Amino acid sequence: MNRNRKISTIAYLLVFLICIVLLGGVSFSKLVDFYVNDVVDYNEWTADLGSPFETDVATSFYQKMGFVNVNAAFRNLLLQRQMNGVVKLNNGYLISPIGWVSDESLQYNADAVVHLKQYLDEHNISFLYVIAPYTSSKYDPQLPVGVEDFANDNLDRFSAMLQKENVDVLDLREIMHEEGIDQYEMMYRTDHHWTTKGGFYAYTKINEWLMKELNCKVDPQVSNISNYTITTYEKWHLGSNGQRTGASFAGIDDFDLITPNFETSLIVMQEDSDKFGQEGSFEDIFIDRRPLEKRNPFSRYTYDDVYGAALTSCVNMRSDNDKKIVLLTDSYGRAIAPYLSISYKQLVKLGTDVDSLTSSFIEDIYKPDVVIMCLYAGNAIGDGDYARSYYDFSHIY
User: Fold this and answer.
1) Which of 62, 136, 226, 346 has the maximum number of C-beta atoms within 10 A of its C-beta?
2) Is residue 55 part of a domain?
3) What is residue 211's three-state secondary structure?
4) Is the separation of the CB atoms in 170 and 130 below 8 Å?
5) What's the pTM value of the predicted model, to 2 decimals?
């Protein structure tokens, strides 16, 4: 009996070792591919293990996402709400909690905005700061017991600093609440972004402000979503938080493509784009359908790639007005810029490349009527180098 048990134990150990060797061998080949050919695993997330080599091994580990999904399944069974730095809210939405940001750090960002606004005032150019919603709602945070998240508190204090200096602030969190809109319906369950419907809603509110501020006309059919075709790709988008927790932790998001049913005509003015000088419709210019041809449940880039992320400047040949806009934004702007582009004469979209927003560009070259700023909450109130790059207006005098 003891002999049989010993044989069974040895057999189990051999099977385990064989599995480890096979996994290690395949993972090693992926690691070599990573080092030699710069081939990155389909899942963008990996744990930071301190040692660069250990982190690279984890990045290239064979079937990494499968192991992440198994981990997530067990956490669901155990009713655990946290995994790899991500928290599942009571309603199933995922967030990466944002910590407390000091008043000093918030004031740094606010002062940069005020500096830009004062410069624009001197040249009779309007300015609007848009506060985008954060996944966890200010009015219904859905936070599990014991979890702290300060994103909305940080945004409230930042907004107060801007308004104290007479900066026009369009707080979409407040507008959604006032209009009785469930903010969660505008956000992805697994991503930090708003959905394309959320981006379109934001566009309509920005458009209302612009028409009033600039005293101009916009074709009313452009801002009416009933004039668009909404094509839903079910379980198509695993967002940035879902990448850290797998599809089994909170599911996979649907993706909505929103395209106009009316005629549109634009010309690309971005000189470093392969579409420079191209004239075409909304879909020709802004939509890349390749990510929609084949479902890849492990990719979070559906949102980023479908909406022509690289395009930064277009002229609208069918505009009812002659107004020109500068939009300072991050990836949140990808779901609003296309609709602004078919509403106004011209739009220039800038991200961390705000150093191109020079006095010469503003006063002599582009001569915008308005500058709009809209950032993801983590960037809007961030104090790291990346977030601060959106606020570097020191070169504008």
Assistant:
1) 136
2) yes
3) helix
4) yes
5) 0.86
Res 36 pLDDT > 50: no
Residues 119-122: contacts with CB under 8 Å, at least 24 apart: 119/359, 119/393, 119/396, 119/397, 120/362, 120/371
In a domain, 289, yes or no: yes
Q: What local confidence, expressed as pLDDT, does residue 9 receive?
A: 63
SS3 223: helix
Tokens at 163, concatenated: 């308004």
* Structure tokens belonging to residue 356: 């191109």
User: Beta strands 82-83 and 86-88: pairing type?
Assistant: antiparallel
Q: At what angle do helices 2-37 and 52-59 cross, to 10 degrees?
A: 100
Q: Quick one: 117 and 202 in the same domain?
A: yes
Domain contains 274? yes
- If asked whether residues 180 and 314 sit together in one domain, one would say yes
Q: Are residues 28 and 130 in the same domain?
A: no
- Among the three residues 37, 62, 87, which one is the final residue of a domain in this structure? 62
| Nearest Cα residue to 258 out of 282, 275, 280, 237 | 282
123 secondary structure, DSSP code = T
What value does the mean pLDDT of the chain take? Answer: 87
- Mean pLDDT, rounded, for 119-125: 97
- Are 227 and 120 found together in one domain? yes
Q: DSSP letters of 248-262?
A: HHH--EEEEEEEESS
Would 270 be classed as within a structural domain?
A: yes
Same domain, 39 and 187: no
Q: Is the pLDDT of residue 345 over 80?
A: yes
The domain in which residue 55 lies consists of: 2-62
**Between 169 and 18, residue with greater pLDDT:** 169
Tell me what pLDDT residue 92 has. Answer: 96
DSSP string, 80-115: --EETTEEE-TTS-EE-------HHHHHHHHHHHHH
Tell me the one-letter amino acid at 86. V
Quote the tokens at residue 374.
């809209």
pLDDT tens column, 148-168: 999 999 999 999 999 999 999
Is residue 246 predicted with pLDDT exceeding 90?
Answer: no
Specify the pLDDT at position 243: 87
State the sign of the Cα–Cα–Cα–Cα dihedral 223, 228, 233, 235: positive
Q: How many domains does the chain have?
A: 2
From CA 303, how far away is CA 282, in angstroms rounded? 17
52 with 151, same domain: the answer is no
- Whole-angstrom Cα distance, residue 61 to residue 15? 19
Together in a domain, 199 and 266: yes
